[in-house]
Design brief:
Length: about 120
């Protein structure tokens, strides 16, 4: 399945790259178009779909192949579109003061005794 994924991903990227035209104006428009980017999530989605179809063929079931195509294509395309990382940004590249500020903003602030009494005193009875 890994070979099928890698081969399909590269083949789709190459086909999309070569699919231009001889007209220089149209070629320039196509180069800047989203359709003609060669290193994006669409290639991974196509590779995942091909790998899913192969898994279905190996299982001997067309419905399994279609479901695997949809699931793997969606999963791998989304993973690629999200930056190819399960953990988000590289936290060690962020300066220490900024990481500390993010950490402090993430957690709830504990209420102090004065805030608790003030909230209950002002509440209607």
């Amino acid at each position: 399945m890994g070979f099928t994924f890698a081969f399909s991903q590269a083949a789709v990227a190459n086909i999309r790259e070569v699919g231009g035209t001889d007209d220089p104006v149209a070629a320039q428009l196509l180069t800047h178009s989203l359709l003609w980017q060669t290193d994006d999530a669409l290639n991974s989605a196509a590779g995942g779909c091909a790998a899913g179809l192969l898994a279905g063929a190996r299982a001997g079931s067309f419905p399994i192949g279609l479901a695997s195509c949809a699931v793997l294509g969606t999963l791998l395309g989304t993973f690629d579109a999200a930056g190819k990382s399960l953990t988000g940004t590289d936290r060690q590249a962020i300066p220490r003061p900024e990481r500390e500020q993010r950490r402090l903003e993430f957690f709830k602030k504990p209420r102090t005794v004065g805030e608790t009494e003030g909230a209950s005193a002002g509440a209607p009875a």
